[in-house]
Design goal:
InterPro entries: NAD(P)-bd_dom_sf, Sc_DH/Rdtase_CS, SDR_fam. It contains nine helices and seven strands, in the order E-H-E-H-E-H-E-H-H-E-H-E-H-H-H-E. By secondary structure, it is of the alpha/beta class. It has a single domain, classed as NAD(P)-binding Rossmann-like Domain (Rossmann fold, 3-Layer(aba) Sandwich), CATH 3.40.50.720.
Length: about 250
């Protein structure tokens, strides 16, 4: 029970990697609050957790809207007390052209994939500073360091998240608050499975470049996240944990 007596707040927690993080945190003894725009999936997961004797709270909120995010965060605090750990998981993909992408499309994308990492810190840090402790984990991507054509501006956003992670770690260390990033590679979420199914042979091709010969599962990311949220990682801060099966070590 690595997270006993912890209150973890997760963004984008209804499906995929986010849901796996919510589940694993609850399994490790945490009280978990999470938000998402998918109400049906969020309510279903919260009900499953509560019905199994765990403590979970779900609220609908769009991380790009600070008032919605703030309201959901305050509801979580009112229900379960101060947040001791934050996981910034919410995000969207972008396959834009640098010439045709509009200013609004750029702003809308960064409002989901980068800005909320700061906004959740803005909400959680006052109580963490007062308590002299806390952990923030930002879900980044292998694209923060390595990318390939067609992922503009996704790589830029994930690189920015890594930079923000480092600076928050340096700035908040004096309050004994730790900030780290986790960068998944190919993970078998519903989104990934849909992409793989869209073209014959795509799964085999993707697996052929994986050093472990397979893609990862969401719970394999979650286990690293819960470690970083726990008191078993008290001297880990400002780091980027690759959960990519070794893909980032491979040369083209």
């Amino acid at each position: 029970m690595k997270l006993a007596n912890k209150h973890i707040f997760v963004t984008g927690g209804a499906k995929g990697i986010g849901a796996a993080i919510v589940q694993d945190a609850a399994d490790e003894g945490a009280t978990v609050s999470f938000i998402d725009i998918d109400v049906a999936a969020g309510e279903k997961l919260a009900a499953q957790l509560n019905n199994s004797g765990k403590k979970a709270f779900f609220a609908k909120a769009n991380v790009a809207n600070f008032e919605e995010l703030k309201s959901a965060f305050n509801q979580a605090v009112s229900k379960f007390g101060d947040v001791t750990g934050v996981v910034n998981n919410a995000g969207v993909n972008s396959h834009a052209d640098p010439v045709t992408m509009t200013d609004k499309e750029w702003d809308d994308f960064f409002a989901v994939d980068m800005k909320p990492v700061w906004l959740t810190a803005k909400l959680a840090l006052p109580a963490m500073r007062k308590a002299k402790g806390g952990s923030i984990v930002n879900i980044c991507s292998i694209h923060g360091r390595l990318t390939y054509p067609g992922f503009f501006p996704y790589g830029a956003a994930k690189s920015a998240v890594l930079g923000l992670t480092r600076n928050l770690a340096l700035d908040e260390g004096k309050h004994e608050i730790r900030v780290n990033a986790v960068s998944p590679g190919y993970i078998l979420t519903d989104l990934t499975k849909g992409w793989l199914a869209a073209e014959s042979g795509r799964t085999e091709k993707a697996n052929s470049i994986q050093p472990l010969g397979r893609m990862g599962e969401p719970n394999e990311v979650a286990k690293v996240v819960t470690f970083l949220l726990s008191d078993k990682s008290t001297y880990v801060s400002g780091s980027d944990w690759a959960v990519d099966g070794g893909l980032g070590a491979r040369s083209a």
